[in-house]
Amino acid sequence: MIVSHTHKFIFIKTAKTAGTSVEVDLCKALGGQDVATPITPPVEGHSARNFRYRKFGIFPKALYNHMPAVAVRNYLGRATFDSYFKFCVEREPVDKCISYYSMYQNSPAHRNSISGLSFDAFVQTGKFPIDTAKYVDKDGALLVDRIVKYETLAEELAEIGQSLGLDVSLKTRAKAGFREEIQPTEAQKRKIYDAFGASNAFTGYSL
Question: What does the CA dihedral 152, 155, 157, 159 come to, rounded to 10 degrees?
Fold first, then answer.
Protein backbone atom coordinates (compact mmCIF):
# COMPACT_ATOMS: atom_id res chain seq x y z
CA MET A 1 0.00 0.00 0.00
CA ILE A 2 1.26 3.47 -0.88
CA VAL A 3 0.12 6.92 0.19
CA SER A 4 1.82 9.79 -1.58
CA HIS A 5 1.20 13.15 0.08
CA THR A 6 3.62 14.65 -2.43
CA HIS A 7 1.54 13.67 -5.45
CA LYS A 8 -1.79 13.09 -3.67
CA PHE A 9 -2.49 9.50 -4.64
CA ILE A 10 -3.20 6.23 -2.85
CA PHE A 11 -2.41 2.79 -4.25
CA ILE A 12 -4.51 -0.01 -2.76
CA LYS A 13 -2.76 -3.33 -3.26
CA THR A 14 -4.68 -6.43 -4.32
CA ALA A 15 -3.48 -10.03 -4.66
CA LYS A 16 -1.85 -11.47 -7.79
CA THR A 17 -2.23 -8.29 -9.86
CA ALA A 18 1.45 -7.24 -10.11
CA GLY A 19 0.92 -5.07 -7.02
CA THR A 20 4.47 -5.55 -5.78
CA SER A 21 5.88 -4.60 -9.18
CA VAL A 22 3.72 -1.46 -9.20
CA GLU A 23 4.88 -0.55 -5.69
CA VAL A 24 8.54 -0.90 -6.64
CA ASP A 25 8.10 1.43 -9.61
CA LEU A 26 5.94 3.93 -7.70
CA CYS A 27 8.47 4.05 -4.86
CA LYS A 28 10.88 5.87 -7.20
CA ALA A 29 8.52 8.84 -7.26
CA LEU A 30 7.84 9.09 -3.51
CA GLY A 31 8.85 12.04 -1.35
CA GLY A 32 10.22 12.08 2.18
CA GLN A 33 6.82 12.16 3.93
CA ASP A 34 5.12 9.58 1.71
CA VAL A 35 4.12 6.12 2.94
CA ALA A 36 5.16 2.73 1.58
CA THR A 37 4.32 -0.33 3.65
CA PRO A 38 6.74 -3.27 4.07
CA ILE A 39 6.75 -6.26 1.72
CA THR A 40 7.52 -9.78 2.98
CA PRO A 41 9.86 -11.17 1.81
CA PRO A 42 11.61 -7.90 0.89
CA VAL A 43 11.91 -7.03 -2.81
CA GLU A 44 14.86 -5.26 -4.37
CA GLY A 45 14.03 -1.68 -5.33
CA HIS A 46 11.26 -1.31 -2.75
CA SER A 47 11.88 0.86 0.30
CA ALA A 48 9.30 0.83 3.10
CA ARG A 49 8.92 4.18 4.86
CA ASN A 50 6.70 6.13 7.28
CA PHE A 51 4.41 3.18 7.97
CA ARG A 52 4.56 3.47 11.75
CA TYR A 53 2.39 6.04 13.47
CA ARG A 54 0.70 6.82 16.78
CA LYS A 55 -3.07 7.11 16.89
CA PHE A 56 -4.15 9.57 19.55
CA GLY A 57 -0.61 9.46 20.93
CA ILE A 58 -1.26 6.30 22.96
CA PHE A 59 -0.63 3.02 21.17
CA PRO A 60 1.94 2.47 18.42
CA LYS A 61 0.30 1.43 15.15
CA ALA A 62 1.56 0.42 11.73
CA LEU A 63 0.15 0.61 8.25
CA TYR A 64 0.47 -2.70 6.41
CA ASN A 65 0.67 -4.39 3.03
CA HIS A 66 -2.69 -5.13 1.37
CA MET A 67 -4.42 -2.66 3.72
CA PRO A 68 -8.05 -2.12 2.63
CA ALA A 69 -9.19 1.30 1.47
CA VAL A 70 -11.64 1.71 4.35
CA ALA A 71 -8.78 1.28 6.86
CA VAL A 72 -6.62 3.76 4.93
CA ARG A 73 -9.52 6.23 5.04
CA ASN A 74 -9.80 5.78 8.81
CA TYR A 75 -6.09 6.50 9.13
CA LEU A 76 -5.94 9.54 6.84
CA GLY A 77 -9.34 10.98 7.67
CA ARG A 78 -12.18 11.26 5.19
CA ALA A 79 -11.29 14.74 3.90
CA THR A 80 -7.73 13.79 2.94
CA PHE A 81 -8.72 10.38 1.63
CA ASP A 82 -11.48 11.82 -0.56
CA SER A 83 -9.17 14.49 -1.99
CA TYR A 84 -6.49 12.01 -3.14
CA PHE A 85 -6.63 9.94 -6.34
CA LYS A 86 -7.13 6.30 -5.37
CA PHE A 87 -6.56 3.26 -7.55
CA CYS A 88 -6.04 -0.49 -7.47
CA VAL A 89 -5.56 -3.29 -10.00
CA GLU A 90 -7.84 -6.24 -10.78
CA ARG A 91 -7.34 -9.29 -12.98
CA GLU A 92 -9.49 -11.69 -14.96
CA PRO A 93 -10.76 -14.10 -12.26
CA VAL A 94 -9.63 -17.45 -13.72
CA ASP A 95 -6.19 -16.08 -14.60
CA LYS A 96 -5.93 -14.56 -11.12
CA CYS A 97 -6.82 -17.86 -9.46
CA ILE A 98 -4.28 -19.80 -11.55
CA SER A 99 -1.58 -17.30 -10.58
CA TYR A 100 -2.59 -17.48 -6.92
CA TYR A 101 -2.69 -21.28 -6.94
CA SER A 102 0.69 -21.48 -8.70
CA MET A 103 2.37 -19.20 -6.15
CA TYR A 104 1.26 -21.36 -3.25
CA GLN A 105 2.45 -24.51 -5.01
CA ASN A 106 5.85 -23.27 -6.18
CA SER A 107 7.06 -20.34 -4.07
CA PRO A 108 9.17 -21.39 -1.05
CA ALA A 109 8.20 -18.13 0.67
CA HIS A 110 4.45 -18.76 0.34
CA ARG A 111 2.74 -21.78 1.88
CA ASN A 112 -0.84 -22.16 3.07
CA SER A 113 -3.71 -24.63 3.21
CA ILE A 114 -3.94 -24.97 -0.59
CA SER A 115 -0.28 -25.90 -1.00
CA GLY A 116 -0.07 -29.45 -2.33
CA LEU A 117 -3.66 -29.58 -3.59
CA SER A 118 -4.56 -30.33 -7.19
CA PHE A 119 -6.06 -27.39 -9.06
CA ASP A 120 -9.48 -29.04 -9.01
CA ALA A 121 -9.24 -29.57 -5.24
CA PHE A 122 -8.24 -25.91 -4.87
CA VAL A 123 -11.29 -24.80 -6.88
CA GLN A 124 -13.54 -26.94 -4.70
CA THR A 125 -12.24 -25.24 -1.55
CA GLY A 126 -13.51 -21.90 -2.85
CA LYS A 127 -10.52 -20.16 -1.23
CA PHE A 128 -10.03 -17.65 -4.02
CA PRO A 129 -8.09 -14.35 -3.98
CA ILE A 130 -11.21 -12.18 -3.96
CA ASP A 131 -10.25 -8.59 -3.15
CA THR A 132 -13.54 -6.70 -3.36
CA ALA A 133 -13.38 -5.84 0.34
CA LYS A 134 -10.07 -4.06 -0.31
CA TYR A 135 -11.75 -1.34 -2.37
CA VAL A 136 -15.38 -1.07 -1.21
CA ASP A 137 -16.94 0.07 2.06
CA LYS A 138 -19.20 -1.98 4.33
CA ASP A 139 -22.19 -1.14 2.15
CA GLY A 140 -20.43 -2.25 -1.04
CA ALA A 141 -19.81 1.28 -2.37
CA LEU A 142 -16.63 1.75 -4.39
CA LEU A 143 -13.87 3.64 -2.55
CA VAL A 144 -11.31 3.92 -5.36
CA ASP A 145 -11.43 6.28 -8.33
CA ARG A 146 -10.10 3.76 -10.82
CA ILE A 147 -9.77 -0.01 -11.07
CA VAL A 148 -6.91 -0.68 -13.47
CA LYS A 149 -7.06 -3.93 -15.42
CA TYR A 150 -4.03 -6.20 -15.13
CA GLU A 151 -4.23 -6.98 -18.83
CA THR A 152 -3.61 -3.32 -19.74
CA LEU A 153 -1.59 -2.42 -16.66
CA ALA A 154 1.42 -0.79 -18.33
CA GLU A 155 -0.69 1.49 -20.50
CA GLU A 156 -3.09 2.48 -17.73
CA LEU A 157 -0.29 3.08 -15.23
CA ALA A 158 1.37 5.39 -17.72
CA GLU A 159 -1.92 7.30 -18.10
CA ILE A 160 -2.25 7.64 -14.33
CA GLY A 161 1.32 8.83 -14.06
CA GLN A 162 0.71 11.45 -16.71
CA SER A 163 -2.41 12.72 -14.93
CA LEU A 164 -0.46 12.99 -11.67
CA GLY A 165 2.56 14.61 -13.27
CA LEU A 166 4.75 11.54 -12.80
CA ASP A 167 6.93 9.57 -15.19
CA VAL A 168 5.79 6.08 -14.27
CA SER A 169 6.43 3.02 -16.40
CA LEU A 170 6.04 -0.61 -15.37
CA LYS A 171 9.54 -2.05 -15.50
CA THR A 172 9.66 -4.40 -12.52
CA ARG A 173 8.55 -8.04 -12.58
CA ALA A 174 8.50 -9.08 -8.94
CA LYS A 175 7.44 -12.53 -7.70
CA ALA A 176 7.44 -13.96 -11.22
CA GLY A 177 8.41 -17.46 -12.35
CA PHE A 178 5.94 -19.59 -10.37
CA ARG A 179 3.19 -19.87 -12.97
CA GLU A 180 1.88 -23.33 -13.90
CA GLU A 181 0.26 -24.15 -17.24
CA ILE A 182 -3.30 -25.06 -16.30
CA GLN A 183 -6.30 -25.53 -18.59
CA PRO A 184 -9.37 -25.13 -16.36
CA THR A 185 -12.62 -26.87 -17.21
CA GLU A 186 -15.80 -24.94 -17.96
CA ALA A 187 -17.22 -26.06 -14.62
CA GLN A 188 -14.16 -24.72 -12.80
CA LYS A 189 -14.43 -21.41 -14.65
CA ARG A 190 -18.10 -21.07 -13.73
CA LYS A 191 -17.42 -21.75 -10.05
CA ILE A 192 -14.68 -19.12 -10.01
CA TYR A 193 -16.80 -16.54 -11.83
CA ASP A 194 -19.73 -17.14 -9.48
CA ALA A 195 -17.44 -16.41 -6.53
CA PHE A 196 -16.13 -13.22 -8.15
CA GLY A 197 -19.59 -11.84 -8.86
CA ALA A 198 -19.24 -8.75 -6.65
CA SER A 199 -15.90 -7.68 -8.13
CA ASN A 200 -17.04 -8.45 -11.68
CA ALA A 201 -19.83 -5.91 -11.20
CA PHE A 202 -17.11 -3.24 -10.99
CA THR A 203 -14.60 -4.66 -13.45
CA GLY A 204 -16.88 -5.99 -16.17
CA TYR A 205 -15.13 -9.35 -16.50
CA SER A 206 -17.43 -12.08 -17.77
CA LEU A 207 -17.43 -15.52 -19.32
Answer: -130
* The model's pTM: 0.90
Measure the CA dihedral 73/78/80/86, to 10°: 50
Distances (CA, A) of 182 to 69, 91, 109, 189: 32, 17, 22, 12
pLDDT of 109 reads: 67
**Distance (Å, rounded) from C-alpha 188 to C-alpha 97?**
11
pLDDT tens profile 112-167: 778 889 999 999 999 999 999 999 999 999 999 999 999 999 999 999 999 998 87
DSSP state of 42: -
Is 9 in a helix, a strand, or coil?
strand
> CA-CA distance, 194 to 202, in Å (whole number)?
14
* pLDDT at residue 190 is higher than 80: yes
* Distance from the first to the final alpha carbon of the chain: 30
The C-alpha angle 194, 198, 200, rounded to 5 degrees, equals 75
How many alpha carbons lie under 13 Å from residue 139 in its C-beta half-sphere?
A: 2
CATH architecture of 2-203: 3-Layer(aba) Sandwich (3.40)
